[in-house]
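Holo prediction. Input below; ligand is 6-O-phosphono-alpha-D-glucopyranose.
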Amino acid sequence: MKTLRLQLRFLLPLALTLVAAAYVAVPLLDQVTLRWFSRDLNSRGVLVANALSDSVAEALLAGKPERLEALFDRTIQDERLFAIAVCGVDGRVLQSTRAFPADLSCARGLELAGRPDPRLDLAGGAVHVGVHAVMGLRQAVEEPVSPASAAAEPAASSSESAAEVDPVRPSPEPVLVGRLVLLHDLSFIEKRSQDTRRYLIGFIASLGFLIALITVIVAQLSWRGWVNGVRAVMRGEGLVSPLLPPPELAPFVDDLRASLRDLEDEYRRMQGPEVDWTGERLRMLLHTQLRGDQVIVVSNREPYIHEHGPDGIVVKRPASGLVTAVEPVMRACSGTWIAHGSGSADRDVVDRADRVGVPPGHQDYQLRRIWLTPEEEQGYYYGFANEGMWPLCHVAHVRPVFRESDWEAYKQVNQRFADAVVAEARSEDPVVLVQDYHFALLPAMIRAKLPQATILTFWHIPWPNPESFGICPWRREILQGMLGSTILGFHTRFHCKNFMETVDRYLEARIEDEHSTISFQDKETLVESYPISIEWPDEAVAAAWPPIAECRRRVSERLQLPAVVRLAVGIDRFDYTKGIIERLNAVERMLEKAPEWIGRFVFVQVAAPTRAALDEYRSFQERVERITERINSRFSRPGYQPIHLLAQHHEPEAVNELFRAADICVVTSLHDGMNLVCKEFVAARDDQQGVLVLSRFAGAAREMTEALIVNPYHVEETADALLRAALMPAAEQRERMASLRSTVREFNVFRWAGRMLSDAGRWRLRARVEARVRRLGEG
Ligand code: G6P
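Structure of the complex:
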């Protein structure tokens, strides 16, 4: 309808133009045709006059014009010839046909014939007047024409005057003996002109119609092309797809996209997440899609560690991305979490079945603790998991170590956890969430005892390429163990792809890339990417945080920082994959490059001790300490030290305080599955200030594109990013931070778990339907 209206807007002026054209063209055409016909009638008259000339001259010279009557009557049989008369040289009408107007004198006829438009209006219609000289030979003259009558003849033309020089002298030359007046009927011209006018109008109308039709079709096609083009641009096509918008849209495409992006950003910020994933929604999903089935989580690290302290037992929260992510999910889902009881007071708080309700004071779910002997812990955790699998998967230039004894311990502990899962299961088909590289063999072990279980394994660290993985002596066993899972999750598509290629290289399995599934020994595993995240702090939680200025004051006081200082923080486990040395080098380079920041830039590195029983970790810690000392000795001034290395465990509240106090957060992992520190920093900054410097080798870099993304191996680039962060205006910080916050809020950990659990729900439904169909077939 809109298109039609638009087209009318175009067609109306077109129609008016055509009418105007017709208005001008028709009279013009009339005039032209009339002139043509008049010329035509003149020549026709000459023809007729020539034909009659001899007979007329003869009759005139004989002085018997009445002899012409029959001749004239015959001649006017021609429908176009209206009347004929013959005038003598004295100007009298000597003979005429009946229709010849009585009041038309020869002189007037001659005068009319001399006009450009020799037209005479009569009562019955208009006639064309033509006068033609009739010449005769003087010798043949029997009765000479009287001089008086010759004198009465007006001079018609110079040739006629020449012929009348001496009418008496006998001459062989032809002389004028009279004039033929021919009146041609003009009505047929009128008729023709009317016809022409009709044809012309018809032609203009058809032309108009044709132009209108073509216009409408072209307009429709272009309109559709435009609309489709604009729609494609709005869908984001043409950026990466080969479907380019129409060329005429090209000049606007960038503007259009930029405006759309701005609008989208604005909308997202105003509306909040499209679908708000909360703990409540996850609980609902469990009840609807998983029919309230039991959820069992298995991980090595426990979410709460009970330790003996000077004032009695204290509860600690470990520094672990895994725990940060899975704990809120368990609080929402209830169920049982099976983990290694590693705290010094852990045994003192459990019941007879080694269970304790957590979180302390809330008891939302049960923590079932598994006790490991020091040998088991050494072989399975320190040995195979952290000296073998961890460096194997991170490819961070630390060689993996594989010992047979570690492998044996790993198998044995995996079996012990599998037995615990079977013992905790209240049905034959619980939902089991297996966490991380400590339990690669667990899925197949559980599957052996609980074939109906839905086993979701999530690999929290990267998965290497097949060549790197190939150095593991037990690569086939590890892959087979993992393929006991119903769903196998990684943070990124890239890691999924690496895993599928590894299976393809080392196992006889059917891989369906299109569905992202692997069929191995008649069992199918879905391999999917589920980017992990954090629990987004709700308003009540955020309201309880101390104000930003207060956090800054407390941190400055504790660390005795100069009054005016840019504060950057790094918060990690003391692990060689985190790029701590690289970021210290970058701080050093920054102070070299921009010495005006000496005394005004402080970097605080929190490094929670981890796996300290391993040489690699101890020597790494020593190296970091040495480098810190060296840089501090270079740039320290009285009352100022550029780097503060805090090698202690910090509880979540203390970490949050640091995040809120900081101007910059530095995450420079050399390789990281996701990295949740950067997401926690963003969540802590409800003032929408602060700059995130983020390694491109952390999975988070794919989502958090508004951070300053760096290659931590490139010291110069990282130093420049620190400088840029230190100088970033508040408005730019706000713009970037607002966008980062809306991403993390939307893609929170409940969404991560929700996506996995709904995939599991669909999988279980499919399995149940297949079983029913099988039973029907058998019955
Ligand atoms: C990080 C990794 C996890 C891993 C955990 C182990 O958080 O992202 O994948 O499970 O470290 O740390 P831990 O101290 O338990 O060895």
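The first helix runs from residue 2 to 61. That is the main takeaway for now.
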